[in-house]
Design a protein that fits this description.
The complex is a heterotrimer of chains A (104), B (133) and C (179). By secondary structure, chain A is mostly beta strands. Chain A contains no helices and 15 strands. Chain B is built from no helices and 18 strands. Classes of the chains: A mainly beta (104), B mainly beta (133), C mainly beta (179).
Chain lengths: 104, 133, 179
């Protein structure tokens, strides 16, 4: 159950710090730091370093990603940046460019 | 009962009875200061200071223009130009048209009222928002 | 919450600028700027240190900043606002607290800077403070004295018409005479 939802027509320029889940449908430019899960839905644009727990990306993420859990790139996701996570899944149809560090 | 020092108010009874509000009817026009111990209801037009210990009611269609307006509870449904200083609540009804600053224990404004002025309620913002202006 | 709306959860802090056209429900902390072409709801535990622009704005929480709405502002019980309120309609319920300047009758500025001052619908609204906010009138020092009173419009662009805010008749003349 998501607690913060950044809707499709919302843009945040700055820092988002959440002690709860974050679902991004719109745009974040800056920094996203969640204590729990992060979901970047299809159509969403995140131009920021992202840190948090389990993450699911179906949209666009440009920035370094740090997860305490697992990172999942779904088909259609476009991720440019380094990913540091214990586990990572990259689905067929996902675009990814960056380093992966699983030595967490 | 309020005593008005003005030419058009000669008919007001001289002896105050605090249980009866004074009423300045819709046809009354006063230019001058009004002061008194009891409640006052203005339905006509007053140009001058109003200082009463009781409650003040400005009816719909009434007009009050003053530099000093003091009462306990103030209820406005008409037009007021001037600052309002109440020792009780200040209520603006939907038909009120008020220009002036409001001070009271509680300020409420019904949607539809026209208002321009300052409101200075006494309270503190929560800690995370820093010092208030 | 209507679908397509946004929620800033109670455990979320945002520092920066939030813009957009979805309705938004703020339950956490926002610092910076909040400009929405939709409805804004500020829940009772929310804290906002920002100017807020929206279509309809309903406040139950704490705001340090000016609030401007295109349609209406409502302060419900629990609202604590330090800042100015500007909207065509403003309602303050019992228990809604504000410290600032409140003005009904004009659309909030923000998306439409041209709505500067001309909406006068028989509302007996004091234009002097409105002018101060929309477009600071050029200081009198610039105007040559011969134009004593009612023609300030030429040099001032979008300042509202005739109401000359503070100067009493003869003040300018008196001042120059002193020199």
């Amino acid at each position: 159950m998501a607690s913060t939802v950044i809707g499709a027509n919302i843009t945040i320029e700055g820092e988002v710090i959440a002690d709860e889940d974050v679902v991004v449908q719109g745009t974040i430019r800056g920094k996203l730091s969640a204590k729990d899960g992060v979901v970047v839905e299809a159509g969403a644009v995140v131009e920021a370093d992202v840190s948090g727990g389990p993450m699911t990306f179906a949209g666009q993420v440009t920035g370094n990603v740090t997860s305490t859990d697992r990172v999942e790139l779904q088909s259609g996701a476009r991720v440019i940046g380094n990913v540091k996570a214990a586990r990572i899944t990259i689905a067929d149809g996902a675009h990814f460019k960056g380093n992966v560090d699983m030595d967490v | 009962m309020a005593q008005a020092k003005a030419s058009s108010a000669r008919h007001l009874p001289a002896r105050p009875r605090s249980s009866d509000p004074a009423v300045l009817g819709a046809g009354v026009r006063i230019r001058g200061r009004i002061s008194g111990e009891g409640d006052l209801s203005i339905l006509g037009s007053v140009e001058g200071d109003v200082v009463v210990r009781g409650d003040l009611n400005v009816g719909e269609g009434a007009r009050l223009e003053s530099e000093v307006l003091e009462a306990h509870a103030v209820t406005i449904a008409g037009e007021v130009n001037g600052d309002v200083t109440a020792s009780g609540p200040v209520r603006l009804g939907a038909t009120a048209r008020v220009r002036g600053d409001l001070k009271g224990t509680e300020i409420s404004i019904e949607e539809g009222a026209q208002f321009a002025g300052r409101i200075e309620a006494d309270f503190e913002l929560p800690a995370g928002l820093g010092k208030s202006r | 919450m209507a679908s397509g709306g946004s929620v800033i959860g109670p455990e979320t802090r945002i520092r920066g600028r939030i813009t957009g056209s979805d309705d938004i429900d703020v339950r956490g902390h926002v610092e910076g700027e909040l400009t929405i072409a939709g409805d804004v709801r500020v829940d009772s535990a929310a804290t906002i240190a920002a100017n807020v622009h929206g279509r309809r704005i309903v406040v139950r929480g704490a705001i340090k900043g000016d609030i401007a709405a295109d349609e209406a502002i409502t302060l419900e019980e629990g609202a604590r606002v330090v800042g100015d309120l500007r909207a065509p309609r403003v309602a303050i319920a019992k228990g809604g607290l504000v410290r600032g300047y409140v003005e009904t009758g004009h659309a909030g500025e923000g998306h439409r800077p041209k709505a500067a001052a001309q909406t006068k619908k028989a509302a007996p609204v004091h234009h002097a403070p409105a002018a101060k906010h929309h477009a600071p009138p050029k200081p009198a020092a610039k105007v040559t004295v011969s134009k004593a009173a009612p023609k300030p419009a030429a040099s001032r662009g979008k300042a509202p018409p005739p109401v000359v805010p503070v100067l009493k008749k003869g003040t300018k003349a008196a001042l120059t005479k002193k020199r």
